[in-house]
Amino acid sequence: MTPFDELLEEGRRQLGICDACRYCEGYCPVFPALARGGVTDGDVVFLANACHDCRACFQACMYTEPHEFAVDIPAALTAVRAAGYGELTWPGWLGWTVRNPLATKLGALAIGLLTAVALTALHGADGFTVTDASPGSFYRVIPTETMTGFFLALTALVIALLIGGLVRFWRVTRPARPTAISGRDVASALAAAATLRHGRGGGGECYVPDPDRPSGARRIAHLLLVYGLVLTFAATVTAAIEQHVLGRLPPYPFWSAAPLLGTVGGIGVIVGAAGLAVLKRQATSKRAVGERVSGYVFIASLEIVAISGMLLLALRAGPLMPALLLLHLGSVTSLYLTMPLGKFVHAVHRLGAIVLVAAETRAAERFR
Amino acid sequence: MSSNIDVVVVGGGNAALCAAIAARQAGAKVLVLERSPIAWRGGNSKYTRNLRCVNDGNSDLPGRYEEDEFLDDLGRVAAGESYDLDLTRLLVARSRDIPAWMEQLGVRWQPPLTGTLQLSHSNRFFLGGGKALINHYYGVLERLGVEVAYESRVTGFQLRAGTCEGVVVAGQDGDEIIPAKRVVVASGGFESDKDWLAETWGEKATAFAIRGCAYNDGSLVRALLELGARSVATPGVFHGTAVDQRSPEYDGGIATRVDSIPFGIVVDRNARRFYDEGEDLWPKRYAIWGRLVGEQDGATAFSIFDSRSVGCFIPPLYPPVSAPSVGELAAELGLDPEALDRTVAAFNDGAAGNHEADIDTTRLDGCCTNGVTPHKSNWALPLERPPYYAFPLRTGVTFTYFGAGVDDRARVVTSDGGRLAGLYAAGEVMAGNILRRGYIAGVGMTIGTVFGRLAGEEAARDALR
Measured between CB atoms, does A281 come within 8 Å of chain B? Predict the structure, then answer.
């Protein structure tokens, strides 16, 4: 049995106990989804990704240690979920990157920065000495066609890898959960994801960081991060429109759409990601659940992107502009490269899981 | 530990916590003495999931559950045994405002759990079940500034001139006396003491599993009775259910319970049926099967069903025993194969007129057997679709009824009509004032909450006078 098989077996054992108990049905969709006898590996992977790690079920559980049944659903499902990202990469041989998050991130940063430097050098060494903020200054460091072409290609690669991983996830979980899915289910899942509804512990909120006092802190920090990222993405799109449709070259004045979106978004990312790191540290000091390196690595990479972006905005009219531009582009590149290979995958797989949840909930009268 | 305590509450489960919260809300200085370590706090309440309350129709629950229906349900499971009608009326009447009281403390509800739809108009399910509820109450106590001492075992009461003035707590260096103006005893029944169970129920009780905690040895029930408290209920009666043979000795909780009984037949170790498996809806009948299984030879029995019933009930955490034929199933279970074949054949003959399409397990469908003893009144479908499955059963004891009598202010009363001054009781310790024989789902937590609040309020008022 591989280590992953062992995690699945333990997940089946524990969920089999939950199937007989079910007191946690009101906390989240995981428990109502248990199907009265017979938990398969596909069920375990599905439920592990539907779980939002609010840990309400752990504090409610009559079978946690020191009880001999030793049930710990957040730990068991987190272990399956985290290991699962490595088992379900596409292509499969990339799995080692998931299992070595720090090395992978450092390697990706190196690749990103070197690529940024190389793209600049390709067009002449004076790209490194641009110091003004006049229109088009960024493109005297790296030409617009190069920058655009590179990031479009990178985006296509990342999307392909994420879709490949999602297909593998679907193939593992779908046979166990074959309910027909409609557009309404996708919409319903997106609505739930938009507020992290399933992380609210059925209304009592999340037991991270304090297993005795639930709160909305982690959910709020996470939402700040996510919407921050959305705004930074919107800033990029807005800038693209301004450049290619309205014919105006960046850098744009601070009090215009793209920089403002980027600033607000950047603050959201910086504060949200830092908040998640603080809460993770506090939670771990009380009880360790799952490996944490990949989480801290992801947070650090987001912070580097956000902080370099803010610094670039602040210091774009000066001698540090090329260096900051290359740092920002390099760190964005490394973030893109590692998106399919680490913590970010949770966004895709968990969304897939809650689409299945929505479909089953809609068809759910048969559970009662 | 603090001094100048107004009210000591002995115990750490639902009744004790409700008493402590109520006493504190009434202004008393309260100390809670929980015998178990913090990891095992909460007694049997950890394993509960709902309580039963009057529902006047103006709540978020469907339908209504009037006082009369509640009283009627209690009366019917008493099965002719007398019980205290005044206290039962008080319980039912005061159940009405329990939900609001709990909600004010921040307790949340969840929809009725899978398989409990018949209870949706009468029973409320607290979010996360009993352990989440008591966790919440411990959080409330912390907010209210009530001290809780764990691993504090009360061994007796400190009396002066016939009045209780404190408790005796066992310690490593000898006993400690904690003075208090009033004492609420909410330390459970005697179900954890298998010797006492065997004395009162019979030797077969040593084979029983205890569904709940190992700390309820009833030592304070004994202490109260020794002080002259009036006893209530018969010593041998308890609330119990059928659990899987493989259950742990203690703390099996809900996951060991077997709910397959209505879907097939139940036989003793001689492969003979002995009771009507389809007598009534499962939520109204599950509680008699503890006693029924315990009465059989070897205090064991077997719930047998075929593949058509798989998925129709919540299974226990243990896998069923299975085999491709009845005879092979018997061999797996240690039963005489010919005897089981005969029993199943006779049952199948009796149920021959019933078809799968007629069976409706959500109501009394009247699909009964003909010419078989014992009769099966509902859901009688022949066992003929392999594989065949079985759960081996043993009795699981939830809690005992024999305890101390109380009056309508939760004060412990004596057999000569007086009171044990300074002492109040709530929860399993006094459940026998209401429950004499059978049980209905959720009423245990109702008893604990109503009499816990009552005892806490009264003890605080008397202490502060």
Answer: no
